[in-house]
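Entry for iron/sulfur cluster complex. Fields follow.
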Amino acid sequence: MTLSITRKEFLKTLGMGTCGFLYAAQTLGDSSNERSYKSIRGKIFKNDAPSRPWKWSIEGFHYASNGKDVQCLVCPNRCYLEPGDRSVCRSKVNIDGKLFSLAYGNPCSVHVDPIEKKPLFHFYPTSTIFSIAAAGCNFRCLNCQNWEISQKKPEELHHVELFPKDVVREVRKREIPSIAYTYSEATTYYEYMFDTAKIAREQGIKNVVVSNGYINKNPLIALTHYLDGANIDLKSFDDRIYQALNGGQLQPVLNTLKTLHQQGVWLEIATLVIPTYTDDPEMIKKMCGWILNELGPDYPLHFLRFAPLYQLTRLPATPVAILEHFRDLAIKEGIHYVYLGNVPGHTGCHTFCHNCNKMLLERVGYILKQNHIKNGRCEFCGTVIPGRWI
Ligand code: SF4
């Protein structure tokens, strides 16, 4: 979809005057009772586009153009690109007044994973999922565990050639039931994901996105027609932390969660608990309240243990006691299924019936040792267990 709008109109959508800056680093206010964070929002790469599209390019699906400048409308960054510019996510460029994605049919990562690794615990457990990623991300997370692919341009990475129909052919050949768009940030290779998901759906294969949820409503709604499941990071419940830790904003992520819920996509939420950033119990309590009000008690919530890496090696790993406290807190608030991640062997990795509290799914790593869910119900008390089951 392309729209024709003027530069003035572009800037109006951003709430700026005609001389506004698209991305301005800012230092947030300090106070004795509040943590202070410095924004790390991403920047556009000026004059960094190739002179012509390459083999793995496609014209963008959601953008506006005035014939010279373009604005991508896929995610809230709404990159405004003059000819020759490259987007914040590094995978979109303005070539001769058109927006092109450089991440189409050139995944840098291709694996077959257990579904539990996403993590998705209530979505066809024990099934495998064909997992792909192309270079790029619209965030700048200080803790990124996949920065070697997320913070790179498509041209900088070794890739294989797998166009959408090739992906589906490989998946069918291996008799794998679903495809995950994962590892880097799927929103930034939206066109590749969308076309692959569409063909996959036509052939009875399920689609799952693992994402930061930083996507605009129209492209998301269009995608949900082919989407079966999603794991969305809710990285914190504080906009200042989103800006400082991730280079994004909270509200668009909340909007995404609501849209997925309304569209009937199976949803699981992941929150990485990072010492000094996202380990405030009051914030977690507020987050649980929002989930209960807007989404209900049934979507699984995963608290993930942080390990020091990338730009946060100075921080310690999350103490397990804090994760346990958050799990107890979320259950007490009313969320039915709360899990701990990156703590192998912990009770918080198993599924317990929210009615009779019996163990239903026992997990050892990604292996399922026991399964007491039959026809979507607890084998012991007959309660319906929310999720998608075989
Ligand atoms: S998807 Fe990429 S190009 Fe589009 S608005 Fe987001 S960061 Fe910018």
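NOTE: The mean pLDDT is 91.
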